[in-house]
């Protein structure tokens, strides 16, 4: 009688361990002490990179800024992974390449932006395959088939 109880207890322990939440960290964001060493109006792009490190991404328009992004994703059992934390530090520059502003954003500041939509309209308007086949019966022309 002890063996089934031990086996059940072991199975429950393994099941509970398998369903433990897993966290993955991605990216890099400089801490506040490092950002305090960056002086707005004096530092340049190169001095910022030297002080706080290389950015995760750069601005695409005239190299307007440096963006440091860090996120934390939680995976729990069979459920879809969810992003629990996101931080973004944006260092923007003026036309002469001097630091103009330093901003910090969190997950609560973000919003979903749809960059592209990949849906192709097939023009069938929810017509089933069988209905398409039956709809072509009257459109058959024997004269055009012999050519």
Description:
This protein is an alpha+beta fold. It has a domain at 19-109. The chain has helices spanning 2-18, 32-36, 45-52, 129-135, 142-146; strands at residues 22-27, 57-58, 65-75, 82-93, 99-106. Strands 1, 2, 3, 4 and 5 form a five-stranded antiparallel β-sheet that branches. Strand 3 and strand 4 form a beta hairpin. The radius of gyration is 29 Å and the shape is flat. The termini are far apart.
Question: Keyphrases for this structure?
Answer:
5-stranded antiparallel β-sheet; 5 helices; 29% helix; 27% strand; 147 residues; alpha+beta; flat
First-to-last CA distance? 83 Å
Oligomer: single chain
Quick one: how many beta strands? 5
- Give the fraction of residues assigned to helices: 25-40%
Summing up helix and strand content along with how strands pair, one would put the structural category as alpha+beta
pLDDT < 50 stretches = none
Q: Hey, roughly how much beta strand do the residues contain?
A: 25-35%
Let me know the largest β-sheet: 5 strands, antiparallel
Overall form: flat
| Gyration radius from CA atoms, angstroms | 29 Å
Separate helix tally: 5
Mean pLDDT: 77
Order of secondary-structure elements: HEHHEEEEHH
């Amino acid at each position: 009688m002890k063996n089934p109880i031990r086996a059940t207890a072991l199975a429950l322990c393994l099941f509970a361990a398998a369903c433990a939440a897993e966290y993955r960290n991605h990216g890099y964001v400089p801490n506040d002490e490092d950002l305090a060493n960056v002086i707005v109006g004096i530092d340049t792009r190169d001095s910022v990179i030297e002080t706080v490190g290389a950015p995760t991404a750069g601005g695409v328009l005239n190299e307007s800024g440096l963006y440091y992004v860090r996120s934390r994703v939680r995976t729990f059992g069979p459920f879809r992974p969810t992003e629990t934390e996101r931080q973004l530090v944006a260092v923007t520059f003026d036309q002469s390449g001097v630091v103009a502003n330093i901003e910090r954003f969190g997950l609560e500041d973000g919003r979903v932006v749809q960059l592209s939509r990949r849906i192709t309209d097939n023009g069938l308007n929810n017509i089933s395959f069988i209905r398409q086949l039956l709809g072509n019966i009257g459109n058959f022309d024997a004269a055009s088939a012999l050519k």
